Structures are given as C-alpha cells and as structure tokens.
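Case 369 in the screening queue. Each case pairs one protein sequence with one candidate compound; here the compound is uridine-5'-diphosphate. For every case the pipeline is the same: read the inputs, emit a complex structure as tokens, and attach any notable structural observations.

Predict complex for case 369.
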Amino acid sequence: MKKYLIVGAGFSGAVVAEQLSKTDCEILVIDERAHIGGNCYTEREKDTGVMIHKYGPHIFNTDNKEVWEYIQQFCEMMPYTNRVKAEYKGNIYSLPVNLHTINQFFGKTLNPKEGKEFIENLGDKSIVEPKNFEEQALKFLGNDLYNAFFYGYTKKQWGCEPTELPASILKRLPVRFNYNDNYYASTYQGIPKDGYTAIFEKMLDRPNIEIQLNTKFNKDFDTSEYDQIYYTGPIDAFFDYKYGRLSYRTVFFERGEVEGDYQGNAVINYADPEVPFTRVHEHKHFTPWEQHEKTVYFKEYSKETEEQDVPYYPKRLKDDMVILEQYQEEVKTLNNYVFLGRLATYRYMDMHHVIGEALGVIRDAGDNK
Ligand code: UDP
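Case 369 output:
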C-alpha cells in the first residue's frame, strides 16, 4: 500500500488528497495552521452571524467546466455575480472599465461603437508589444483612465511602480464597451452556500486521510516512509531560503461593524493614492440569500510580506525570477517530490487554476487509479 504525504491543506493539497484517497493508500495531510482550507478558509462570525472569508473574499469563477463540476461535488454553489465599484476623487464608478465608467468619467453618452473608437483614440499607439502593466494599460485605455483607476491602486497594492509588474496582471481585468459590469468574464461564477471550509471538510473526510494541523514541515520531519510527497508550501521556505526570499505582497484587514448596510455592495475599490486602503469588503453581500441585522466590513491594506506574515501575491520581479530559477533547479534533483500550487510554484493563481492543475497532476501521474 502506498503512503503519501501532502504538505498544505489548501486547494492544491485537498484536491490531491481527495483524488489519491480513491486508491488503496494511506495519506497524511499536514498544515502549519490550526485549520484546513488555506487562504480560502471561511467561518461564521458568532456576533454578526455573517460568513467571513478570513483571508479575504474568494469568489469562485472559471471557464473550466471540469473544475466547475468537480467543486460542485462538495458544495451547493449559489449564483453570484461580482459587481465591484470604484471610488475616485469623490465619485463612484463602475468596474471593470465599461461603457458606464467611460461615459461617467468623460461626461459623455457614447454608444458601444463610439465608446470603442473613443478609447482606441486615447490608447498609446506607439506601444506595439506591451512589456509591463503600465504599457498594457496605456496601450488599451490611455493615460486618463490608467491614472484614475489603475496607477494609484496598483502602487498601493503592489508597492512598486506598475512598470515593474508584468502585463499579465492587468490582463486579468476585462474592458467592455457595453454596460456589463460583471467583474469577471468567466462562464461560471458562484459562492458556496455554506462557505469554503465545508468544501474542504467534505473533500478530506475519508478513512484513508489523516490530517495533522499545527504541524510545520521542516528538515526534521521524517519523510522516509512516504512513497511520494506533494509539497504546496512556499518553495523558498522548503530550501530554508538559501538563495534568498521570494517577494510577496501581503494584505491585512481592519474590521468594522454596524447595524444594517455599510456600503451597499460587497466590494468597493479605492483608487485614490491618498486613501491608505485598497478596497473595502462587506461580507454579508457575498451571501445575498442570507439575512443579517448587523453587518461587518473589512478595509484591506497591502504591504510587503515579512517573516511572520502570510504570503499572498507573488510579485515575480526580475530578482525574484533569478532566485526562483535556482530553487526550481534544485527541485529537479529531488526524486519523490511534486511541487504544486501558488506558493510552491510562485505564481499568481486563482482557485480554479489551482484545482485544475492539481487534478491534472494526479491524472498525469496516473495515481488516481
Ligand atoms: N487593479 C487596479 N484597480 C482596480 C482593480 C484592480 O489597478 O480597481 C489592478 C491591480 O494591480 C490588481 C490587478 O488589477 O492587482 C488585478 O486585479 P484583481 O481584482 O484581479 O486582483 P485580486 O482580486 O486578485 O486582488
């Protein structure tokens, strides 16, 4: 009988465990936190009754039918469309940038064709192949919209000039020449009715899966009895940071509570650089099927990740990529390890990417048979 060790009980680890558990094997899942679910962990607040996404809101959205069907084995997905607003210089605008945003911002009443032509004219035509976040924005949106909605917000969130960031970060957001204000362009979107923690509980509730929480993986951990180790923690931590630390942004939250409704929407972004937080989440709006008298909101702040902080967003700056390559070379020399997920591969991944890749890893290895 095979023995597997899985380091990390976030989506990567949980999917691998769930898939492997169908075979004749024994699985140990360890996590350094006191709970399963990684950054997707949710819990219901005693005081307000509101379901809280402890590490920031997670809205499930994907184009991948396999992933969408897979996740629904473990939860009831409620229909949810993320509609984000942005505050900038005393006005509220619609996001992602759409015809409403354009008309409101420029004081116009353009139709879709006019709006498209108008923005194309504002775009910087000298940029052929955008090399970074800023060039991507200037090429497709022009200077005014970029400065209003992206420059300040991005500097606050990432702590660096947008010229240092890859264009791919901006490509996450659509630009539309109609009034569709769905933040995501994905085919499928929803929020699990009972939160994310319940999903992880269902995935990991198997006779051949043992879970050990508050258990850090380090050099002293005896791995000799395992046929295969799936590692989903930070790749630099695995090697004791011997080539240096990879840079991440982390976020932290300031909680507030009032009666009724605080901001009338789940998410409002703050584009002004003078406002110290990036966005405010009011969690009860993520569960419109529930009723709560009180409401709780969180102001989200970003900062550089230090030793004691939770790493969130991999920055992938030039220096990081040099360090990453050294670690990746060393991973190739390990024979019974698989590194997967956001932290172990140091990539900006959404939940659906993580799940899709984890399913692929097990399928490719043929380990689920
Ligand atoms: N962004 C921005 N202004 C906004 C929203 C997003 O400049 O109002 C930029 C920012 O750099 C962010 C990126 O677009 O990192 C991707 O945004 P998304 O909402 O996908 O980020 P996430 O929800 O993953 O933090």
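Case 369 observations:
- Residues 86, 95, 149-150, 153-154, 157, 169-170, 172-173, 269, 271 surround uridine-5'-diphosphate (CB under 6 Å).
- Residues 113-169 form one domain.
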